[in-house]
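Exercise: predict the fold of this chain.
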Amino acid sequence: LLILGQHYSLPWLIGTPSAVLWFDVVPFVDPLAGLEVLLASRGCSATLLIGVGAVLAVTFLLGPVVCGWLCPLGLLLDVSNRLPPWLHFRRVLRARETVRSTRPREWKYWILLSCLGASLVAGVPVFSSVSPINLVVLSVSFSPLVGLLSVGWIMFLEIASPRLFCRSVCPLGALHRLVGRFALLQVRVRPDGRRTGCQQCTLQCPMGNRVLEDVVLAGQPTVDDLDCTRCAPRADVCAGQLVRSGWGSRSRRHARPPTPQTKNHSNPPP
């Protein structure tokens, strides 16, 4: 819609990933870009406040769904992860999947503080000027070489370490996670569901969360993780209809379920 609005002046969404007008009336502003502009210019307008407030209200209610449902860079990374193994050497790099759960998460919060501080000192919105999220749309619309190279480099890193940028680097994602920490929309675990031990909830989680090990088998009622982007379609992979998205605050911990018995595919001892 953003690309169509750029070229055909369609009224649905006019602008960039940082700031758009919905039907030329309602503003939506990237909250990090809005904060950077506020700090850089030492001032704000009513449109800026309304646009930032609208996006933060959605995040406060639904959680960081912008990262899971709307981010154009996330779309490209999802496409990259679904390429055939022979095309992106995923079969060779499968042994590195443990990187998903061991890479540091706190980097993005320090980067968030650094971007805000740099915007205040330099007088320019720092991250918004170089954001690869914005470069995706700009690259498709205007094909700048720098943008294409930057996005291509992030997609290359995705092969070796899935969601490295989203999980460890992106300051916008850090802001959405902090605001949506206690959102009403949660990925919930049904206490009466059938625990099969298939591990699909863990294997299919784009952010590398150990859903089966740290949530289901631990008796947790919800995926209590800042990096959970509420990706409801991913919850549908659960064979036992155990993991589902739902509304409501976090409830008390479930009784610890027994560990499911899985088949042992290793060679039997002699």
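Check your answer against the key: Confidence is low (pLDDT under 50) at residues 90-101, 257-270.
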